[in-house]
Amino acid sequence: MTLDVLVIGAGPAGLALAAALCETGMRVECVTPTNPTAPWPNTYGIWEDELPTPTLAAMLKHRWTDCVAYAAGEEHRLERVYGLLDNSRVQAHLLAACERGAIRWHRQPARSIEHGAAYSSVTLDDASVVRARLVVDASGHAPIFVRRPPLREIAYQAAYGVVGTFTQPPVRDGRLVLMDYRSDHLTEAERRNEPPTFLYAMGFGDGRHFVEETSLAHAPAVPFDLLKARLHRRLAYHGCAVAEIEHEEFCLFPMNMPVPLLDQPVLGYGGAASMVHPASGYQVGAALRNAPTVAQAIAEALAVSDPSPVRIARAGWNALWPAERLRKHRLYLFGLQTLLSFDEGQLQRFFATFFHLPRQSWGGYLSNTLSMAEVMQTMARTFLAAPMDVRGGLMAAAFQHPGMLASALWNA
Ligand SMILES: Cc1cc2nc3c(=O)[nH]c(=O)nc-3n(C[C@H](O)[C@H](O)[C@H](O)COP(=O)(O)OP(=O)(O)OC[C@H]3O[C@@H](n4cnc5c(N)ncnc54)[C@H](O)[C@@H]3O)c2cc1C
Q: Is residue 297's pLDDT more than 80?
């Protein structure tokens, strides 16, 4: 029997799309090596306004209205509400939609795939074969089936974090620190020669805090040992130490993966489809937001008589990566490439300028809700308002990577 869609992976992206596919009435199955109810391992932060429905917006387990960033000696108040997803509630919400659609789970990894004219066949770990008119690969940042153009240098976001109690509050209770680039705890040589990192931190209001030393993007990835040592030095500089560790987070994922090949017979989703925002590393909001549109496009493609997997996948890719989003992504990749070339001082001055922009501009840029014209305007405003050395760095990047900029500006 051939089903409509087989989803590989039940992380936030796979589950969001599986739920949306089920809502359209398609016959959906999902392959996941773990139980689909197994807790997602990561802590997901998100701007409240990125959650696409009031139901999902009510699924934040913590909300912060007191949000700040520190860069270039300034405290920037970010007038925007930030939250932590209540993973178990979001997961239960998506699972309920899947169950309403009578989804079937295969609790084992997918191993290989073959494509025919009318369906694709996926072989599972136990050698059983599942046939589907479309296979969606949502197996994460190193996808099992999705193919992408080669990339010479992968820049990773890396972070080491601790949830726990501290001898002194590391940040004010009830406050969210999106980015603290202050580096007085480092020596001049460290600031000059080592990759820049910042603190991402939040107080839960009950004496517990989450503090994470983060490298926004670096190639190669900043090692966890360095991040951990930096976190403890930063805390010590502020007269604070970890008292009790509740949870340690080791975060590592690629920031600049190219968009997958859009003519392949498999559709990707989430990390597998390079949906991580190159400016921030965030992805979960986009996975939740885009799922209904992509599911609808798949449903429409399936309704056409005898479409091939490649045609159905193409409809999904087009919904996920329409021309304007592709061009914006190229611009974001160019922006990231520029930041990779900045030293710590330039980076701080860049973010100080960026967070001085109107909230709609920096917020829309980080959430990917601006039009192409607005993204360009935001970049131009940042350039014009930035100090000379940052402007110089931005111009140098344009000369060093003319192809990246040109492909964003002129290729549809
Ligand atoms: C520690 C950490 C913190 C992060 N924090 C944030 C954040 O705050 N906000 C944000 O937006 N993003 C964050 N990210 C980035 C990104 O959103 C996450 O990586 C997110 O989990 C990606 O979702 P995904 O569903 O695409 O992939 P994953 O969450 O990696 O899920 C993929 C699933 O596929 C399954 N799978 C893999 N191989 C197979 C196979 N062969 N067969 C079947 N199933 C398979 C895996 O078991 C897994 O369950 C974070 C990433 C990390 C690592």
A: yes
**Residue 272: both structure tokens together:** 């597998």
Q: What is the pLDDT of residue 412?
A: 44
Could you check whether 2-43+54-59+85-149+261-321 and 156-254 share the same CATH topology? no
* Domain residue ranges of the chain, discontinuous segments joined by +: 2-43+54-59+85-149+261-321, 156-254, 324-410
- Pick among 3.50.50.60, 3.30.1020.10, 3.30.70.20, 2.60.40.10: CATH of 2-43+54-59+85-149+261-321: 3.50.50.60
User: Rounded to two decimals, what is the model's pTM?
Assistant: 0.96
Residue 370 confidence (pLDDT): 96
CA distances from 110 to 16, 20, 124, 229, 245 (A): 19, 21, 4, 38, 35
Nearest to 108 by CA among 94, 128, 88: 128
Question: What is the distance in A from the centroid of ligand 1 to the CA of 12?
Answer: 7
pLDDT at 1: 83
Measured by CA distance, the residue closest to atom 5 of ligand 1 is: 44
Alpha helix ranges (H) inside 140-250:
188-193, 224-237
Task: Name the architecture of domain 156-254.
Answer: 2-Layer Sandwich (3.30)
Kindly list the protein residues whose Cβ atom lies closer than 6 A to any atom of ligand 1. 8-14, 31-34, 42, 44-46, 109-110, 138-140, 144, 249, 251, 253, 270-271, 281-284
Alpha-helical runs (H) found in 107-223: 188-193
Question: Which residue owns the Cα nearest ligand 1 atom 29?
Answer: 11
- pLDDT band with cut points at 50, 70 and 90 for residue 402: confident
Centroid of ligand 1 to alpha carbon of 32 (angstroms):
12
pLDDT at 411: 64
* Cis status of the peptide bond prior to 196, with omega within 30 of 0: no
